[in-house]
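Working notes for the structural subgroup meeting. M.R. asked for a predicted model of this chain before we commit to crystallization trials. I am recording the input and output together here so anyone reviewing the notebook later can reproduce the run.

Input as submitted:
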Amino acid sequence: MPTLPWVTIDRPTTENVQIMASRLEVRSLRHVPGFLATSIRLWRQARRSPGVVGVTLKADLTARTFWTLSAWSDADAITAYARTDPHASAIVRARAVIKESTFVFWSAPVGDLPIDWAQARHRIAEKRESTTGQRLS
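Returned structure, recorded in token form:
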């Protein structure tokens, strides 16, 4: 499972940061190469975005699933990143190939960084369970 390790970009000036984690599953293995390339491009964009504190990306290629985890100075920084190209146009294109997506957001103390994958995956699983009403992995 390819993982781009956590990269700390900037030290925030606040005591807390906003965390964003996502799980994105594509419909078919044929979509994996293109989605992986786009994911890396968006990871690079995030690293240059105002307000980013740290980022990481994980891809489970055989399961067609991609995971993102990032920390931001505030929610406005996350929104600005999402609305800026190439991310903004990638969202539109991804709708055709995404089978399922889950996004979670929470606040965390700066001292908790970097957030570990176990915590992010747990929060995503909880959200998926609350949405579907059944236990998911």
